[in-house]
Specification:
The protein is 14% helix and 49% strand. By secondary structure, the protein is mostly beta strands.
Length: 287
């Protein structure tokens, strides 16, 4: 009985924290959540699959924050002018139309005009980006005397601080290189790495990366003594410091095409005589 009562109370608390209210905005009735409550309120919800954001003033008027495309197909960023007018000209140069960015902006304004206001945002927040890719590799750190190139597929989870144009990120990556008739070697690699965005624009970025630690599960077939075929499975852990470069090109509000040269050289692994060919193209999106 006590467990059931506790469960009911928890469900009630959850519903209370995430409750929605009905508002009428320009003749449209909407259910909106309150993210920030102060001199300016930030209201939002996902409506017909799209994020929509609104700001409510002390007198009860509600204005939608918009970012429409003009005839030149460029975004007009009307939300910046709207918020600048409502905040007595507080700078919007680094403001994005995202829940995190808007929350911090409005929270900062509320704190500046009301000494009794209690901030509800945090200084930093982790965000995630998921990606998938495919390409070719010659496995530059493995003996590949004919320089055979094989297909490569991969997936990764990128972790970064949720702020405007973050430069630093970490990633967890898994990739698999296949074998073929001329090169009987395949491996599945799990790696932990770091990226730094050298060029960091809203539309694209160019970064350097390093794989700090890897675990490889390898299958290899070779001809041994007496012309017998030998198959061998191996598992290895390395701290190789493998360096690469890449680029993310924005193609949607939260999605990117990525091009990556994943294995240029390594500090603690020897190149086996072939210039590195390890190129993949993929797609990423924010979670």
């Amino acid at each position: 009985m006590k467990k059931n009562l506790l469960l009911i109370l928890l469900c009630f608390a959850f519903q209370f924290n995430y409750s929605q209210e009905n508002y009428t905005v320009n003749g449209e009735t909407l259910q909106l959540k309150t993210e920030i409550d102060g001199n300016l309120d930030l209201l939002w919800n996902i409506i017909d699959g799209k994020y929509r954001y609104f700001v409510k003033t002390d007198d009860g008027s509600i204005t939608e924050l918009k970012n429409t495309k003009g005839s030149d197909k460029n975004y007009q960023e009307e939300y910046k002018a709207t918020l600048s007018n409502l905040t007595n000209g507080m700078s919007t140069s680094k403001l994005n139309l995202t829940l995190y960015s808007l929350s911090n902006y409005i929270d900062k304004y509320n704190a500046s005009v009301d000494m009794a206001y209690t901030s509800t945002t945090t200084e930093s927040k982790v965000q995630l980006r998921l990606g998938f890719s495919g390409g070719i590799t010659n496995n530059p750190f493995v003996g590949n005397y004919a320089n055979v190139k094989v297909p490569l597929i991969g997936a990764e989870l990128e972790i970064y601080e949720a702020k405007v144009l973050p430069r630093h990120s970490g990633f967890l990556q898994v990739r698999h290189s296949f074998d073929n008739d001329n090169f009987s070697y395949n491996t599945t690699e799990f790696s932990l790495g770091y990226r730094y965005r050298i060029i960091n624009k809203s539309s694209f970025s160019i970064y350097g990366q390093v794989k700090l630690a890897t675990v490889n599960f390898t299958d290899v077939t070779y001809i041994g003594e007496n012309e017998t075929e030998i198959s061998q499975n191996d598992t290895s852990f390395d701290v190789p410091f493998i360096f690469g470069i890449g680029s993310d090109i924005k193609v949607g509000k939260t999605s990117y095409i990525t091009i990556i040269y994943g294995e240029l050289f390594a500090l603690l692994l020897d190149n086996q005589g072939n210039f590195s060919t390890d190129i993949a193209i993929g797609y990423k999106f924010n979670l």
